[in-house]
Specification:
Layout (H helix, E strand, L loop, with lengths): L4 E4 L11 E2 L5 E2 L5 H11 L3 E5 L5 H9 L4 E3 L5 H11 L7 E4 L6 H6 L2 E4 L5 H4 L4 E2 L8 H12 L3 H12 L1
Helix pairs in contact: 1-6
């Protein structure tokens, strides 16, 4: 298992899936900062990252920019088509792509990805489609859990943690 691109949905994975609005109608999202460590761990290993979300909000774009995510696609109806373009762009095979999603619009990409996961809060019919059902719910650090579980599977989590610690000293 040699994943070279991690793709993630946002709503229901990085967030609890809730839609929050201010009195003036501005949309807000609550992100779990734990997920940012997942991005950091992947960057240490030079693994590309991408967001493909059905929602098109500046909040997600700002979060992606802050974390220096390699690719971001918002307002996407056909997630598999975007992932196929990324596969070609980076000259990858499907088994080199990991994807985490939580809802019906994720099914086709979950089926195609070489490694797939969903948060424990996903519907049962989504859980049947993935390789790993995570312990965390959406908005509770599910993306980080997915990354760490992959790194443990390939016996590289300790290496990544040690490389991180070396870089901050």
């Amino acid at each position: 298992m040699d994943i070279k691109l991690f793709i993630t949905d946002i709503d229901g994975v990085w967030t609890d899936g809730g839609m929050y609005y201010t009195e003036s109608g501005h949309e807000c999202k609550k992100f779990n900062t734990s997920d940012s460590a997942g991005i950091l761990f992947l960057k240490i290993l030079n693994i590309k990252t991408a967001i493909i979300s059905g929602e098109d909000t500046s909040v997600v774009a700002k979060r992606a920019e802050k974390l220096n995510i390699d690719e971001i696609f918002l307002g996407v109806a056909d997630k598999l088509a975007i992932a196929s373009k990324l596969k070609e762009k980076y000259r990858l095979k499907w088994d080199e792509i990991a994807y985490i999603g939580d809802d019906i619009n994720d099914i086709l990409l979950l089926r195609k990805a070489g490694l797939s996961a969903c948060p424990s809060s996903a519907e049962d019919y989504i859980k049947k489609e993935v390789d790993w059902v995570l312990d965390k719910k959406g908005g509770e650090g599910a993306f980080r859990e997915f990354v760490q579980k992959y790194l443990m599977k390939i016996n590289r989590l300790d290496e990544v943690i040690n490389r991180y610690l070396e870089n901050i000293q």
